[in-house]
Write a structure and sequence with these properties.
Layout lengths: L15 H16 L4 H7 L4 E10 L6 E10 L7 E7 L5 H18 L4 E7 L8 H14 L9 E5 L5 H15 L23 H8 L1 H8 L7 E5 L3 H12 L3 E7 L2 E4 L6 H11 L9 E3 L1 H4 L6 E4 L18 E3 L8 H9 L3 E3 L1 H4 L1 H16 L5 H26 L3 H20 L4
Parallel strand pairs: 3-4, 3-5, 6-7, 6-10, 10-11, 11-12
Antiparallel strand pairs: 1-2, 2-4, 7-8, 8-9
Helix pairs in contact: 1-3, 1-15, 3-15, 4-5, 6-8, 6-13, 6-14, 8-9, 13-14, 14-15
The structure holds nicotinamide-adenine-dinucleotide (NAD).
């Protein structure tokens, strides 16, 4: 391998998260002695589309030029699959990194997809509903030849939700001339969305908690849980943890966190945030900042907001002995080293949050067959896939004497490289 992170070949994708993702891949590729041709091939995405488009604000006076991206990392495994993010700072490198992580994630849980990701550089909290709809529809038009049920299937991610997926599906369907629910997942059930998709990522993550706790010799009853981020992933992770008998002592959102040592009532937090949007103002709790949240006394920490939240500035002060990663890329490589030195057990993102894409896969299959499953079937199959993936990754970790993140990457990378070798090179 002559390429190194940061060299000319990677200039297009330059961003902290892309460096992290490639750095991680390089480390594991060397560890498993990966064929250098495959190593070089998989460091960069196969396709990346950057679009810009005009977006008219509600006042009809100002027109903004908005940047959008869709990146497909590997097309050898089947259609590509990955979320769509609306964020003020999203960029091509970040989207490319997340597409790569999606490739490994799908391979770890055995789904027939390569990884993809999308992004639109807007601040979702500043958009009205009508503005969000216009941005979604125009972005969809700009990438319409790139996506499709057999090509690339978007899903919700940060700043997007069921409603955004519904607009995306409607725009695509209008242009192809027939209803095409399988073009996106994470839709409302009324449009062919799957029951239990909304809860899937948080629920899937926490379905691993009993096995992870057992591994640490931790009693789950009353175990103290802290959750960073109270959006789609964080809120359902908090709820599932509470349902397992754990005590959710703190949660936070972009504005800050709330803490109660006796435990928060997660269902009432749902009601509060549904009405007030943010956690602030919730009664009879102590306020904590997002920085303080990571230092709270707890057993389990669930980062479920942004990438890079656990880094060298706070890793050493984390008291939890178990981290379940709900967000994508929440822990930087140097923080990983600190956590390992402090004997913190980390269930990595590419394994932990795979429940979302797993139920998205169920949704896609149901849409293609026009045959819908019951909630209990979906929850049962999700649990089975998550538990099997966890056991298989743990086996690799024990056999190869590596941490869970490295083991998960070994498993995912091996599956993808086997497929690529079997397909060969055209022409
Ligand atoms: P979301 O937009 O529904 O919620 C994000 C939450 O994080 C909100 O509570 C927001 O206020 C909070 N937040 C945003 N910036 C923050 C900051 N700087 N500090 C603290 N809190 C902040 O997003 P989501 O779908 O829950 O996704 C959260 C993470 O999980 C992302 O990293 C995403 O890529 C990852 N993820 C999501 C899914 C899914 O199915 N939605 C699947 C896999 C991974």
């Amino acid at each position: 391998m002559t390429l190194s992170v940061g060299d000319g070949a990677l200039l297009e994708w330059e961003s902290p998260l892309f460096r992290e993702a490639v750095g991680q891949f390089d480390r594991v590729a060397e560890l498993i002695d990966l064929d250098p041709n495959l190593h070089e091939r998989l460091r960069v995405p196969q396709r990346a589309l950057t679009v810009t488009f005009p977006f008219r604000h509600d006042d009809y006076m100002s027109v903004e030029t908005v940047f959008g991206y869709r990146v497909q990392h590997v097309l050898s495994m089947g259609p590509t699959k990955g979320g769509l993010r609306f964020a003020a700072d999203v960029n091509l490198g970040e989207v490319a990194a997340l597409a790569m992580l999606m490739t490994w994630k799908c391979a770890i849980v055995g789904l027939p997809f390569g990884g993809a990701k999308g992004g639109v550089r807007v601040e979702p909290l500043e958009l009205t509903r009508a503005e969000k709809q216009r941005v979604t529809r125009r972005y969809t038009m700009e990438i319409i030849n790139f996506i499709g049920p057999d090509r690339d299937i978007p899903a919700p991610d940060m700043g997007t939700d069921e409603q955004v997926m519904a607009w995306l599906m409607d725009t695509y369907s209008t242009h192809v001339g027939h209803s095409e629910p399988a073009v996106v997942t994470g839709k409302p059930p009324a449009l062919g969305g799957s029951v239990a998709r909304r809860e899937a990522t948080g629920r899937g993550l926490v379905s691993l908690l009993p096995m992870a706790a057992q591994n640490r010799g931790m009693e789950l009853e009353n175990a103290k849980v802290v959750v960073h981020g109270f959006g789609n992933v964080g809120r359902y992770a908090a709820l599932a943890a509470q349902q397992l008998g754990a005590r959710v002592v703190a949660v936070s959102d972009v504005k800050g966190g709330i803490y109660r040592d006796a435990g928060l009532d997660v269902e009432s937090l749902f009601a509060w945030t549904d009405e007030h949007q943010f956690l602030e103002g919730y009664p009879q709790v102590d306020e904590v900042s997002n920085e303080e949240l990571f230092e709270l006394d707890c057993d389990v920490l669930i980062p479920a907001a942004v990438g890079g939240a656990i880094n060298k500035s706070n890793a050493d002060r984390i008291k939890a002995s178990l981290i379940l990663e709900g967000a994508n890329g929440p822990t930087t490589a140097d923080a990983d080293d600190i956590l390992a030195a402090n004997n913190v057990f980390v269930v990595p993102d590419i394994l932990g949050n795979a429940g979302g894409v797993t139920v998205s896969y169920f949704e896609w299959v149901q849409d293609l067959q026009n045959y819908f499953w019951s909630e209990s079937e979906i929850v049962g199959r999700l649990r089975e896939i998550m538990n099997r993936a966890f056991s298989e990754v743990l086996d690799v970790a024990v056999r190869e004497n590596v941490d869970l993140r490295t083991a998960a990457l070994i498993k995912g990378i091996r599956r993808v490289t086997q497929a690529k070798l079997a397909r060969g090179i055209y022409p």
